[in-house]
TrEMBL record:
Record InterPro entries: CAP_sf, cNMP-bd_dom
Identification of the protein by name: Cyclic nucleotide-binding domain-containing protein
Domain of life of the source: Bacteria
Domain spans labelled Cyclic nucleotide-binding: 73-125
């Protein structure tokens, strides 16, 4: 989160505040991805998976939340690199000038070493 806020500061955007509901939903989603690596191919094709978690966030917070997911290659086990990849993959979500809250989680798949990460960024009034 600090890395993402550093990036936002560089492009003159306000910092995002940590939101525990975003975190809990991101944790569930990342865990689900780690348990089912094949799911990652479906995500880019089908927003319904993300929408399920976004719906819960909206119901609990009234937020206009956006979810972002991704993974790093199993050959790269450096968490700092995972964050770097996330800031590239999720750039439009992270660079949303209306965003003010964030929650995210990273899980590692013990079978193949892949990292799966999920961020939810949104606007909470």
């Amino acid at each position: 989160m600090n890395r993402i806020n550093d990036h936002r500061e560089e492009i003159n955007l306000t910092e995002l505040e940590f939101n525990p509901i975003f975190f809990e939903q991101a944790k569930r989603f990342a865990s689900e991805l780690a348990d089912n690596p094949g799911l990652r191919e479906q995500i880019s094709k089908d927003d319904q998976i993300i929408s399920r978690y976004t719906s819960v966030i909206k119901a609990q917070t009234g937020a206009n939340a956006k979810g972002c997911t991704g993974f790093s290659a199993s050959s790269n086990l450096d968490p700092n690199e995972v964050v770097k990849i996330m800031t590239q993959t999720c750039r439009s979500t992270i660079d949303d000038r209306n965003a003010n809250a964030i929650g995210g989680a990273v899980f590692q798949n013990a079978n193949n070493g892949d990292y799966f990460y999920v961020t939810f960024i949104g606007k909470i009034d």
